[in-house]
Amino acid sequence: MKIAFIGLGNMGAGMAANLVKAGHEVHAFDLSEAARAAAHGAGCTTHMTAGEACAEADAVVSMLPNGAIVNSVYAADVFSRAPKGAILLDCSTIDVATARKVIAAAQAAGYDMVDAPVSGGIAAANGGTLTFMVGGSDTAYARAQPILAAMGKTVIHAGDAGNGQAAKICNNMLLGIQMIGTCEAFAMAQKLGLDPQVFYDISSVSSGQCWSMTSYCPVPGVGPKSPSDNDYQGGFATALMLKDLTLAMEAAKTSGSTVPMGQHAQEIYESFAKENGARDFSALIQTL
C-alpha cells in the first residue's frame, strides 16, 4: 500500500519506519530537513511538501503537534491532493472539537477518516507496540485498522468521530493524577523511614497499585526500568502531559464535567513545566 506520512517528530519517525518494515511504500513529509533525512534512511521516500507526499496515496497518516496545524494541513494539502478513495488517519493528540470538524470536512470531501491518537510514548512508537484509540465510522475503522496494527499492538474502536481523542485525554488525565499521587506516596514513605523498594514490594501488590507505580515507577532503581533510571530523560515529556491535561480541561468545560483532581493536576504540571518541560513527567517527584 502507498501511504503518505505527515509529521516525522519523535513519535512519527518510528511509526513511519514501522510502516516501511511492514512492507508499505511510505512517502513522508516534515518541515524539518533532519527529520526528512532520518526518514529517508529508514526507507521512506521523502517530499518537500505535504501535498506532494499525498499524491496517489492509498492512505494518509498524520502525526502533528496541535489541532490548528491538523486542520490547516488537511484543508490545504490533503483534501486537494490525496485521491478520493484514500483512507485518512490522524494520529495526533488534539481537541475533540477539531477532530470532529476535520473528519466532517473529510466526509464532505468524499473521504473515510478516523482520529487515532496513541498511547505508549517514543519507545513504543519505535518498537511498534503503541495502543491506538480510534474514532470514526465502522467502515473507516475497518479500513484503518490494518494500517494501525502495523504500528501498534492494540487497536481499539472507541466509537464515532472524535471519540479516540476523548478516550486519549480522559486516559491521560487519569495518568497525570495517578503519577502525582504515586510521587507523593513514595516521597512520604521515604521521609517516614521506609525503603523505596520495600514500599514498592508492599504497595505494588496492595490497594495502592497502579500503572504509574508498577510499570513507570518515579523512583530510580525500583520496579521495571523507566525514565527515572535515565535521569528522567526520554519517556513522556512534562510539556506533553501538560498539553494533554490542558485539552482535558477544555473538554471538561465544553462537556460540563466536574474534574477537580484533573484541574489540580494541570496546575501542578503547569508550574513544574516552567523549568522542566523536556523532562519526563515522573520527574515531578524531585519537587517533593
Report the structural category: alpha/beta
What is the spatial order of strands in the main beta sheet? 3-2-1-4-5-6
CATH class of the largest domain: Alpha Beta
Write the CATH homologous superfamily of the largest domain. Answer: NAD(P)-binding Rossmann-like Domain
Number of helices: 12
Determine the oligomeric state from the structure: single chain
- Write down the overall mean pLDDT: 97
Instruction: Give the overall form.
Output: globular
Spatial gap, N to C terminus: 50 Å
- Count every beta strand, where a strand is a DSSP E run of 2 or more residues: 9
Could you say what the CATH topology of the largest domain is called?
Rossmann fold
Low-confidence runs (pLDDT<50, min 5 residues)? none
CATH architectural label of the largest domain:
3-Layer(aba) Sandwich
- Tell me the fraction of residues in β-strands, as a range: 5-15%
Order of helices and strands: EHEHEHEHEHEEHEHEHHHHH
Largest sheet: 6 strands, parallel
Number of spatially distinct domains: 2
Cα radius of gyration in angstroms: 20 Å
State the helicity in percent bands.
40-55%
